[in-house]
Write a structure and sequence with these properties.
The chain is of the alpha/beta class. It folds into two domains: 4-49, no CATH class; 56-229, 3-Layer(aba) Sandwich (Rossmann fold), CATH 3.40.50.150. It has eight helices and seven strands. The chain has helices at residues 14-22, 28-38, 41-49, 56-66, 84-93, 126-136, 155-176, 194-203; strands spanning 75-78, 102-106, 116-120, 142-145, 182-186, 204-210, 223-229. A seven-stranded mixed beta sheet has the order 3-2-1-4-5-7-6, sandwiched between helices. Strand 1 (75-78), helix 5 (84-93) and strand 2 form a beta-alpha-beta unit. Helix 4 (56-66) packs parallel to helix 5 (84-93). 37% of the residues are buried. The structure holds S-adenosylmethionine (SAM).
């Protein structure tokens, strides 16, 4: 397989999976999960490259397509743990320790990543947005949100909960982005996201749906990128 722009696809490991399948005591759902991990070339490549998460490839691939993370830009990453997107964003915008231009927040603790600062906080809490802007010391050029609510297994409930996070991230972006700024967010298809999409169309010059190769085909996960913020 070819490796496009350093963010493409890679090899896999079958022998170990066959061994695991023969272990009769293991629950079939966990066997399926392990099988998926072992067969997933991105998992191996994540470890090789020292990325904090497999999700790093999703941002790399979206950026390959839209080339919006440019040197000198400032970035706020909502739902940043464990930190794969922070790593990619800081590399692309050339953010350095001591003058961090990439700031993240998550309800979970994020590991320290050079060129980035992160705080623990819930984006539902209004003061968290102010804390992020204060830490960045300016308005952001790019807002990223890979936030996802914990899944319940009930498709419609999961959709509503993740769309709620998308709406909060969008409100934060409209309130704070620099003119011409970019908003990229996780977006589950399911119907209730329409209002958020309308708001994006109104406030940005272009809105695109994108499903990077690293996002599993069977998943309802997708992303929406809004380019050219028109200003408040
Ligand atoms: C898919 S993970 C993000 C992975 C990250 N982009 C990376 O590359 O490592 C989604 C994150 O959203 C966070 N999250 C969910 N709800 C949140 C909220 N209300 N406020 C802040 N973070 C939240 C979760 O804790 C989780 O770490």
């Amino acid at each position: 397989m070819t490796n496009k722009n350093n963010s493409g696809s890679f090899g896999s490991s079958r022998g170990l999976l066959n061994k695991i399948k023969k272990d009769k005591k293991r629950k079939s759902s966990s066997t399926r999960w392990i099988g998926r991990q072992l067969n997933d070339p991105y998992v191996l490549e994540t470890q090789k490259r020292g990325y904090k998460s497999r999700a790093a490839f999703k941002l790399l691939q979206i950026n390959d397509k839209f080339n919006f993370l440019l040197p000198g830009l400032s970035v706020i990453d909502l739902g940043c743990a464990p930190g794969g997107w922070l790593q990619i964003a800081s590399e692309k915008v050339s953010s350095i320790a001591g003058n961090e231009k990439v700031i993240g927040v998550d309800i979970l603790k994020t590991d320290d990543i050079s060129g980035c600062k992160s705080i623990i906080g819930d984006i539902n809490d209004k003061t968290v947005g102010d804390d992020l802007i204060e830490l960045l010391g300016q308005k952001p050029d790019v807002v990223l949100s890979d936030m996802a609510a914990n899944t319940t297994g009930h498709r419609q409930t999961d959709h509503i909960r993740t769309t709620h996070l998308l709406e909060i991230a969008l409100d934060f972006s409209i309130e704070n982005l620099n003119r011409n700024g970019v908003f990229l967010a996780k977006c589950f298809k399911g119907g209730t996201e329409k209002e958020a999409l309308n708001l994006m169309q109104k406030n940005f010059s272009k809105v695109h749906h994108v499903k990077p190769d690293a996002s599993r085909k069977e998943s309802v996960e997708g992303y929406v990128i809004a380019l050219g913020f028109k200003g408040k």
